[in-house]
Fold each of these.
Amino acid sequence: MQHTVMSDQVPLSSLRFLPLQAREFHSLPAGFEYQHEISEGSNTTAFDTGIDARDLRRCVVCGMKGGGGLRPGVQRAHIIGRTEDILWGLLKGRGFVPSFAKSVVHEPRNGINLCSVHHVDFDGYRFFIRWVPSLSAFVFINFSQNGSLEQFHGKTVALDPNHSHSPFTAPFLIQEMRTRGFHPWCTDRSIPCPLSPTYTDVDNGGGDGVAGFGGAIDTGVESGGMAGPGGSGGVAGSSSGPSSTGVNQQYLVLGNPFQDPELLESMRRQWQQLPNWKSATVEGLTWEGTAEENAKQYVDLVGVSPH
């Protein structure tokens, strides 16, 4: 019986994002912190409009559309709670989110659009969303094995990882750990690959749909990868042999990364190469110097020329 094994993580050498700089973004010298003087109202508006523009005023899980002001049909949900300033600061200090990120309340990369039902499920720790770099996708995990959520388990949610306001992945990981704690008797389940989206838009007339988002995913992995399910978060092959297409079935198995310090560190370094990290860094920069000074500041922090 043949088994196909692959990892849910990708080697740093295979990533096609910006190269990691020697000076990590979370440990910048004094004077580089986010210092923009923006009113509370402006910050709140930026949070709302940033999420709405990214998520197209839809629940990222089921696709429900929101009307004016979104509520009560679709709501803007914080991943890390809006009152958790201490935790947010800890994530910045450990390099899990950029030091340039806005406050926990106002950072649009700390929020997603959810319908009222899935907002309650998310805040109630019935499911979590995991970023899987080998699939370049955010995956819905019904860890509580709730019956009404099972239809979404192991499917990709409508979040574009290349969007400048794509959610930071670390807040999702914190929410995942809380979900695991709420359901200590539940375990990780294997997920058949390739993955399909949680919903497909059938309203093509409005011009604002995300039809089939995340459906056609290239796993970008081969046989013989990282072994085994568990703490390392591997993907194991089927025990039932080849599929009907004649190709060995592959399964995604997500483990607890906090049980594997090396894996967690690898994930942290990968996060710092994602487009949303660069965008948050650029947004937090001040451009009060000369053109030459500003260009140098950009290259030093982001790693590429702005031209």
Note: The longest helix spans residues 40-55.
Amino acid sequence: MNATLRTFGVYVLTSLLMLRTLVVPVILVDFELRHDYIAQYLCENRLRPELHCDGKCYLAKKLKAAQEHDEREASQRLVTQLLELPHEHLLTTFTFGLSSWAERELEPTPFLAPVYVHDSLSDCFRPPQTIFC
């Protein structure tokens, strides 16, 4: 019983998700099934038969409304993602601390000691030397 209820729930939720992607085909099928009724009662040009509209204006209006609805939802989703994304990072806390390698003292090594010993005053205040061959 529990497994069949779960399976039924999966089918219902999947069909609801698929219905969202099938909006345009549903509108087209609805138009084809009710073509005579739409042409006779819902068409904007029903009083002008010379235009041969036959309800195509109604179909175009429904398709445009569905497209605008999808675009509006997409833009709202984009705005929501852009506005809520930075707030998610504010909830994350970062702690910065010195790691163990930064806290230890460096020991001088014998092979690097002559490189770093430098008397800058003797280099700076010294008269120029002339070279005689």
Note: The radius of gyration is 39 Å.
Amino acid sequence: GKHVGPPLAFKCIKASGGRVPRTLVGVARIYPVLYKERLPDGSSIVRSERMERKALQLYHQRVSKIAEDIMSEQDENCASTDDSEEGAKICKMLEQAAEPEVMMAGLTSEQMISFSSYQAKQKEARQNEVAKKVENALEVAGLSSRDVTPFLKVRVTGLAHKISATKTINKEGLITIWNPTEKQKADLVEGQVYIATGLLPSAHCTNILYLHARGS
């Protein structure tokens, strides 16, 4: 990439100054990953990894329950969409027969093919109908999808350049990395120095500088 000049010292970063091309930081503390869910009403909730797993499990249970209820209401009988079709006629006859197994055994191979093809079409139509009903029911229940973003907070110390780390009083910062990548999580180590690029300052509170970054 193009040369963007030396890293910008923390003391030169302003909350309203826009994205910071590069700055040098020492990582003091890496906090556990948290999960922020934006709810349909616009509010949000932050959970730990354990609580997020529970919330996801509960969400899947509720979705499964709605899907199962709708599927159990489906009529397995022959549909009367196109009764002129050979397969539909055979289906009706089998439904009304006293001994359907005996009747099945007496079908010709052409009749069996017609019946199987009709059954397959009916099954697909039923599945599509169920999928539509489930989708609508989930929307009504506010369960269409979850809007969850993982984030990682890293407490850092701003450094002017690597060798001055011990000689000056360094400003502290808290970097929030939204959607951190697996590589970022593996590469970040407490006590190490990094060149951070593309940080966005959000608020300036006494001695702490709050910055945001995107992982993916």
Note: The first strand starts at residue 20 and ends at 30.
